[in-house]
Amino acid sequence: MSKTTQKKTISNPRNNNTNARQRSISKKSLWIIAFVVLLSTLLIFWLTTGESLLRQAEMTSYLKNKYGEDFVVKKPEYKNGGLGFQGIWVAQAHTVNSSQLDFEVSCSSSDLSACSDTYLDSFFSKQEYDRLKPVMDSMNAADYSVRIIIGYDALDNITKNTELVHIKQKYNPIYKLKVS
Question: Which of 60, 79, 84 lies closest to 70 in space, CA to CA?
């Protein structure tokens, strides 16, 4: 009869402890890497999209507070800023009810309360365009545009309910008529 020798494997407690440490270090490394990747992703998102979303919300709120209407503000762009220069955020907007009445809204990058817009200019330009339509049709003018630019000093004193005739007489806006 032959004797079979069996080898007993004796586990070394030191090896098990080392493996557990390596697994633990490996898990810690994965968590650190995941955290760094997540933080980097959030930072890139904020730099590319986050701030413009914040400015868009501020512009929408500014217009709502000023005119008491709901507006759609498109994605703002940061313009004219650079080394040593504060830029402005500029976006196109329109009322919820009329997407054809497009105008510009802008806000300072440093002072969130310093915003301006051309809503009343566009509103009264559209009114004048509609008023001139029969005249232009009778002249066979295929294409024309009207642009009324109201001075900033007048904007505090007029509303949408102010008559255009009154604005023309009292504030002398810039009046541009282009006929093609």
Answer: 60
